[in-house]
Design a protein that fits this description.
single chain, mainly alpha, two-stranded antiparallel sheet, 2 helices, 2 strands
């Protein structure tokens, strides 16, 4: 019997509101930098988790600047 390989689901903070704040270089939707967004799939789970933990603070900074 042939087994079917399913793609691995990688957690992402993306909320499909992709707009970079030019003052701080962060996406206004998820709080990541363009480099983080571009490299997300190549990162280790630990690297992604560290960024995920930093995002609430980043998003608060974006909101305060608005």
């Amino acid at each position: 019997m042939t087994s079917i390989r399913r793609p691995v689901q990688i957690e992402s903070p993306c909320i499909r509101l992709c707009r970079v704040d030019m003052r701080n270089g962060l996406c206004e939707g998820c709080g990541r930098t363009l480099a983080e967004i571009g490299g997300w799939l190549a990162m280790t789970a630990g690297e992604r988790q560290a960024i995920m933990e930093a995002l609430p603070g980043r998003l608060a900074t974006i909101a305060e600047a608005s």
